Every structure is written in structure tokens, then in C-alpha cells.
Amino acid sequence: MSGPRRRRSRQDYERGLPDHHDPTAGFGGAAPARSALTLRLVLAAFGLVVCVGGGVVWLVTGLPVWAAVVLFVLAAVAAVDLVVVARRKARGEPG
Fold first, then answer.
1. 49 versus 22: which is more confidently predicted?
2. Which of 4-8, 36-40, 67-71 has the lowest mean pLDDT?
3. Which residues 6+ apart lie within 8 Å of 25 measured at CB?
4. pLDDT band for position 79 (cuts 50, 70, 90)
5. Which of 29, 69, 75, 94 is 20 to 30 A from 47, alpha carbon to alpha carbon?
6. Burial letters 35-68, b for 16+ CB under 10 A, else e
7. Is residue 85 packed enough to be buried (19+ CB in 10 Å), middle (13-18) or exposed (0-12)?
8. How far are the Cα atoms of 4, 10, 63 from residue 7, in angstroms, in the given order?
9. Is the separation of the CB atoms in 44 and 82 below 8 Å?
10. Contact 67, 58 (CB under 8 A)
């Protein structure tokens, strides 16, 4: 077993992580692959707003409650994803 893992810094992510393999690196002048964390953050925020808004409208209009519950569960999933992505971006991962 190797020793305890040290916490990665912003410079580690800028240099690239060990054992990362990008099959398109250098192929035809392709730029290095980047993570789409910002896009994922925007989509999670959009999903959270739409699901909460849709769930509230669904409850107010008197439609079946089970569909509103499904929307609120999806909103909770979007909120968790929002927190995870925000922590990864704060840690310094590119994207």
C-alpha cells in the first residue's frame, strides 16, 4: 500500500493528474480535454429551479400529488449535484 494521499492543489489540476489519459491529446492539433463543470453547474441550477417551480405549480393546481413528489425528489438530486460541483470548482478543478 502506498502512504496517505495528500490533498491536491490547484497547481496539481493545472499540470494534469497522474494516470490521466487523453486519447485525443496531440491528435490533429486537438486541444486537451477539459471538464465541463461550469456547464454541469448551470444545468443543475436550471433543473433545481424548474423542478421546484413545477412541483409548486403542480400542487397549487390540484393535480395528483405523486407527480409533485417526483419533481421535488428530482429537485433534491439537482441540489446535491449543485453542491458537489460547487465544491469541486472551489477546490480548483478546471472546467
1. 49
2. 4-8
3. 32, 33
4. very high
5. 94
6. eebeebbeebbebbeebbebbeebbeeeeeeeeb
7. buried
8. 10, 10, 49
9. yes
10. yes
Contact 51, 74 (CB under 8 A): yes
| Among 33, 41, 39, 42, CA closest to 85 | 41
- The whole-model pTM stands at 0.65
DSSP assignment of the chain: ---PPPPPPHHHHHH--TT---TTTTGGGPPPP---HHHHHHHHHHHHHHHHHHHHHHHHTT--HHHHHHHHHHHHHHHHHHHHHHHHHHHT---
